[in-house]
């Protein structure tokens, strides 16, 4: 199967409130696919559905050919072991040093010897340029470094699927560029498949193979970054060119300013 993850006709809501509908997405093996969209458009919800944390009311989500909704607890546990996740702000365990943070999933999920874990942790830290920071505590490193440690921890078990939720949030432009390149390089070095949720156009377009644009729980545009850059779709244009107003209104809906100021002409 060319796609590691396939989403077909997904419908998901919290209570009566529909969050995602008619969702159809492909995540081909080895590729880095971005999911972009405004706040609340349902991006994180897609990652949670793929990870099996929540279940859709309708439709199918297959990972490696397996229907996620049909897995029992043990099956879910087995498949999640093949997923690396880096969530917003990628919090580290503050009472563990950098080394032990990266070693944590290995100690938790494998029976590897400490000697083997040591070598593997040092290799992961080398990949993110922080081998010499192994003994430092999270409080002693910068935000950008902490994100790189979180990346090393996310890839500790050589996952087939890597999911990143806003990995650039709160980073300065240089750290953002470093993190973006690392995400691309780790994907290629591990031969994995990556899903990147972000609203940072510059960094995302620089590394993604394909981009889905989500608005109000639906895919409104999709294509390569090059195609999206020249897209005439109003939503994509607003997003890519950071226009304040467009299909996504700047103003919270309600009465017009004229009406509020009593200036509206009445017939
Ligand atoms: N546990 C929950 N119960 C009810 N509604 C929720 C829950 N989690 C999320 N939502 C709602 O679902 C919608 C989609 O949320 P989601 O987190 O997927 O959006 P997002 O695109 O990732 O947004 P952001 O970029 O702000 O993180 C939002 O309107 C949110 O308020």
TrEMBL record:
Taxonomically, the superkingdom here is Bacteria
GO terms for MF: ATP binding
Which SUPFAM superfamilies does the UniProt record give?
P-loop containing nucleoside triphosphate hydrolases
- The name on file for this protein is ABC transporter ATP-binding protein
State the UniProt keywords alphabetically: ATP-binding, Cell membrane, Membrane, Nucleotide-binding, Transport
Database matches in Pfam families: ABC_tran
Decide whether keyword Membrane is in the record: yes
Q: Does the keyword Cell membrane apply?
A: yes
List the taxonomic lineage.
Answer: Bacteria, Pseudomonadati, Pseudomonadota, Betaproteobacteria, Burkholderiales
| Ranges of residues in domain ABC transporter | 5-241
InterPro entries hit by this protein? AAA+_ATPase, ABC_transporter-like_ATP-bd, ABC_transporter-like_CS, P-loop_NTPase
The organism of origin for this protein? Undibacterium umbellatum
Q: Which residues form the signal peptide?
A: none
Q: Which PANTHER family match?
A: INTERMEMBRANE PHOSPHOLIPID TRANSPORT SYSTEM ATP-BINDING PROTEIN MLAF (PTHR43023:SF6), PROTEIN TRIGALACTOSYLDIACYLGLYCEROL 3, CHLOROPLASTIC (PTHR43023)
């Amino acid at each position: 199967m060319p796609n590691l993850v396939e989403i077909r006709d997904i419908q998901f809501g919290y209570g009566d409130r529909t969050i995602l509908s008619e969702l159809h997405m492909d995540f081909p093996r080895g590729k880095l696919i971005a999911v972009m969209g405004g706040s609340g458009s349902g991006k994180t919800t897609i990652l949670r559905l793929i990870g099996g944390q929540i279940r859709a009311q309708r439709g199918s989500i297959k990972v490696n050919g397996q229907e996620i909704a049909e897995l029992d607890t043990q099956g879910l546990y087995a498949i999640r072991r093949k997923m690396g996740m880096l969530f917003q702000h990628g919090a580290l365990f503050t009472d563990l040093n950098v080394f032990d943070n990266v070693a944590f999933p290995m100690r938790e999920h494998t029976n590897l010897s400490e000697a083997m874990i040591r070598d593997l942790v040092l290799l992961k830290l080398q990949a993110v340029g922080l081998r010499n920071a192994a003994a430092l505590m999270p409080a002693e490193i910068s935000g950008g470094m902490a994100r790189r440690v979180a990346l090393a921890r996310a890839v500790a078990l050589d996952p087939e699927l890597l999911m990143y939720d806003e990995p650039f949030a709160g980073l300065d432009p240089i750290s953002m560029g470093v993190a973006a390149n690392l995400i691309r390089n780790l994907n290629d070095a591990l031969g994995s498949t990556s899903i990147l949720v972000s609203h940072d156009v510059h960094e995302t377009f620089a590394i993604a193979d394909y981009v889905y644009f989500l608005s109000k729980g639906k895919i409104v545009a999709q294509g390569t970054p090059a195609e999206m850059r020249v897209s005439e779709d109003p939503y994509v244009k607003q997003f890519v060119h950071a226009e304040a107003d467009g299909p996504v209104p700047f103003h919270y809906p309600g009465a017009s300013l004229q009406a509020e100021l009593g200036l509206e002409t009445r017939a």
